[in-house]
Amino acid sequence: MFAFIIRRLGTMVLTMLCLTMVVFFMVNLEPNLKKLAISQLDMRSPADQIESWLVKNGYRQNFFVRYGQWIGVVKKQPNIDATGKAIPRFSFCNEPTEPYYGGVLEGDFGCSTKFKTKVANKLFPALGATGILMFWVMVTMVPIALLIGILAGMREGTRTDRTLSVASIATTATPEYVSGIIFTVIFASWLGWLNGSAATATAQGITFYNFTLPVMTMAIYGIGYIARMTRASMVEVMTQQYIRTARLKGLSFSSVVIKHALRNALIAPFTVIMLQFPWLLTGVVIVEVMFRYQGFGYTLVEAAGNNDIDLLLGCSLVSVFVVLFTQLISDLGYAYLNPRIRVQ
Fold it and tell me: How would you class 13 by CB atoms within 10 Å of its CB: exposed for 0-12, middle for 13-18, buried for 19 or more?
């Protein structure tokens, strides 16, 4: 198991390097660099002034040199003004005026040209806000989905099974932007029970009134998907020979389900549950923008809309890490639940 973890960690590091290099190349394409320069200068700036700004701020250096500076293995060079004096690239980030190592490995994610601060000062509070949202989504989604899937799988072909299966398919077929609008119209506009905007959740604090709609919108889709996977796994397990043997020995139906069927039935749903974390990262982009909840997804959209290169790179790095880390946890959990994986 230890060797397996080491191999997976090595694969994670290599994958992160490859993916971040691709993202770094994409966000530093020529149109993006020119848009960034114009946003920092003026819309009427001539081409030579834009080019001078890009050269002065190091955007015309070799691609691998800039990538190495962002990683933190190549020293960053300060800007030189007309008098030959070294000045920081962005004054609002308090960058040193001498060559220094300042990249991801040193905990420096760069400067946000949109929010006029260090990327870490904007990215990590947004991640914390999204972490709270994702926690409550998982707390709401997973128990309900497992309960629905287990009940449907225990009674295959019954009216309960058909009803729960139809409800699961309906929720899975409804995207977040549709269910969010429906919930807002019903619970915020018609009934007036909940707040249709979650902007106050990050500004004034999270309450049931301003936080429920985003959680409901994200959870409703995942509930149906996990429930369907749990039902399929439960149906397969309930037809196994050892389940029939346990029943013939006189064990009650509930005892057979709890003691013998559940652990094997939860192997596939566990993998699906862990893979919900990468999906939640994409789901929060829609939900946070819709409800103006200032978390990771909202910050990513703001960075993309304003061509904030360093903030975009920071968001991309976090996304890659979350996807790879959850896949590692999923594989380890699968091996724990299924002894045959450990033997192999």
Answer: exposed
Domain final position from 116, 131, 158? 116
d(Cα 62, Cα 70) in Å, to the nearest integer?
A: 12
Closest CA to 310 of 19, 24, 18: 24
Strand (E) or helix (H) holding 178: helix 176-183
Domain membership of residue 143 as a residue range: 121-343
pLDDT digits (tens, 9 = 90+) for 79-120: 766 666 777 777 777 777 778 788 888 888 888 888 888 898
Contact 67, 59 (CB under 8 A): no
Phi-psi map region of 205: left, alpha, beta (phi>0 left; psi -120 to 50 alpha): left
CA 128, distance to chain mean position in Å, is 12
Same domain, 163 and 285: yes
| pLDDT, greater one: 69 or 57 | 69
- Total domains in the fold of the chain: 2
Residue 210: Cβ-neighbour burial (10 angstroms; 0-12, 13-18, 19+): buried
Query: Which candidate, 344, 263, 313, 293, places its Cα nearest to that of 128?
Result: 293
Q: List pLDDT tens digits, range 254-295.
A: 677 776 677 677 777 777 787 777 777 777 888 888 888 888
What phi and psi values does residue 268 have, to the nearest 5 degrees? -65, -45
181 and 275 housed in the same domain: yes
pTM of the model: 0.81
**Pairing mode of beta strands 111-112, 79-80:** unpaired
* 303 and 173 in a common domain: yes
28: helix, coil or strand? coil
The C-alpha atoms of residue 305 and residue 290 are separated, in whole angstroms, by: 15
